[in-house]
Amino acid sequence: MLTAPVVKIIDSSAVDGPGNRSAVFLQGCNFNCEYCHNPETIDPEGRPESLRFLTVEQVVDRVGRSLPFIRGLTISGGECMLHEAFVYEVCLEAKRRYGQDFSCLLDSNGSIPYDRVLPVIDGVLLDVKAVDESAHRALTGASAAPVMAQAAALAKEGKLTEIRTVVLGNCDEAEKCILRVAERIVEAAGADALRNISYRLIKYRPKGVRKEYLKTLKVPGDKEMVRLERIASDCGFSPVVIV
Amino acid sequence: MKELQEQRRDILAIIKDPTLTHEQTMMALSSAGRDILELPGDATRRFYELKEKGWLCDLNEGRVTYVPRYILPDYRIYMEKGCAFLRLDPPTDLYEATMGLLAIYHHVPSVTHFPVYIGRLDQLLEPFVLKEIRENGEERAYTLIKGFLRHIDRTVTDSFCHANIGPEASLTADLILKAERELQDSTPNITLLYDPDRTDEAFAIRCVQAALDCAKPSFANHRMFLSELGEDYGIASCYNGLPVAGGAFTLSRIILARVAYDSTDKEEFMRKNLPAAIDAMLAFMDEKIRFLVEDTPFFSTSFLVKEGWIRPDRFNGLFGMVGLAEAVNDLLEKEGTQARFGSDDKADALGLEIMELIYNRVQAHENTYCPFYGNRFMLHAQVGIDSDTGISPGTRIPIGEEIPLYEHLRHSGRFHKYFPSGTGDIFPFDVTAEKNPRAVLDIFKGALDVGMRYISTYTSDSDVIRITGYLVKRSDIEALKKEQQVVNDTVVLGMRSVEKSRVEERKVRKL
Hints:
- The complex is a heterodimer of chains A (243) and B (511).
- Chain A is of the alpha/beta class and 243 residues long.
- Chain A contains seven helices and nine strands.
- Chain A has two domains: 1-125, TIM Barrel, CATH 3.20.20.70; 128-243, Alpha-Beta Barrel (TIM Barrel).
- By secondary structure, chain B is an alpha/beta fold.
- Chain B is built from 20 helices and 15 strands.
- The mean pLDDT of chain B is 95.
């Protein structure tokens, strides 16, 4: 029977996509971001204390207990697409049981194409962490190219729900992220597409971050965050949220 | 009855109280005068015997009532015909409409002498707002609406004053929300009559944003009220569903907790004491209503009646109760169980058993002054008064014993059905909810689906907060604590409730 390592399931989340949602966190990530605030979920072989191997049925059952107070579920990680088959089955089963309107989103890093899961998901909350190849590699240990390609592909399908960028220090990279990803979306799906894509600018916070990175990572100023918010709004993203 | 010397002392104390404004002094003196009267008869005597024991409470109405407790005038009459008594013609523009309404509100009495219902403002004013915008622009319309609301707050100096909006979106409702967010006033209280099928989602989200910002509007389950009271109903005072062009003659309450404390066990409570308390209250309410309708001139002389704003056959007696949680916990403790209301099925089952007993006994009682509701009294989950200590409003789970959000909402939903004349729960949210108001709306929608009648929210950092049903500004409470006068007479109730009922300790929900 298909199972996946589930770190935790939250019954009520207002920060994992539009509306109130249940959020499912899976273990293992193919990025190793310096600012990761739950690094214990990175190692695919890691076994945090709360981790349980759950079947598709168990996850869908548990999420369903939060009805009618949620509008859907968000599968997050780690990187949920490392469990592509499981993600597919959970979304398929959730929609079969709770109706096609029950929205299924992924919070994902864009490293793995979504082609297979696309028919059963409503959208992706896509992390765009950096755009320069060297900066992306330095921050995450992985290439930026697939992320941009996924952003374009999802936008074309109308399934790019949100872009999320963790804002660091002087904000230069975040600004580049906003501008470049907007450009790619417009190329792929036209300027109108931006109006239905939200942008979430997440202010870096040291909480939970591994000690070795604390010195180099800087918290951005509030003024800078507001400046970025304006840039994202001017590009056409809607809504733009600072957290 | 108090001795004359004691009454004089009380009256002198009112006159010398430095925290009372002149208006508040007058109101207090009028109650002191009224309370010298005693309504003769066994029913009243019996009621006050049980009041002495702490089982029953007349909610500051005194022994006699000379005006209905809650009046919901049909303000459409002003829009269509004007008001002969007040020499007001039907309004022709927004300025006249708002000015006329303010004049009328001054003449709508209640138990607190202030209007508890000021109408479905969006429907009443929308044609005038549209005309104003067309002729003079939105800014002018907004100025008039904001001035109208500010005037209400400064002259209706009591928070039991309620405006309704919805279920459909309107420009007027949006102007009201915008003004309220700017004003941050406690009055008027506002309710959105909410029906997810009729209320536009974007508008509902704007209502949530306003609620998180200034504690209003609350959300009423429109479909539920509609099925019980028909299209012409309104939300008045704290959260009371009542017929428009009618209202409530009176409201008394049973303090279930105290009846339980005086009972040796569940058996004595269910078989003897609770039925006795219910019967005493029913008889008292009968007598009080009879006196009001037959022996006072109100229903034969008031312009509200003569001009058709209200009709006596649309009034009802409200049978109130508080402290179900404490009653249940006490009775179970006497059985040697530690089960708590809200957290344990056994306690919740007993809560429902008590509600069924009350419901059935009240339903079995006929009062022919209440034809609107089949000659029956409506149950009312009373929110408590400032002197209550350790007694939770209606059927609420006590502050400090809240359970996880969804369970809590489901729990409320199981009890709300009993109270067509009002009940409600309050769920403050952490400020993060402001970033995703749609999430709060999802939760509210779910709450309605599980049977909740009425739900309110505010955020942990609001200045305006909901005490039990009414709103008070935290900044006013601080002023009163320093013995400064504040214009709104409800602040003192709020201050005492914050002290005694741990309002500030209400669980803040994080999403």
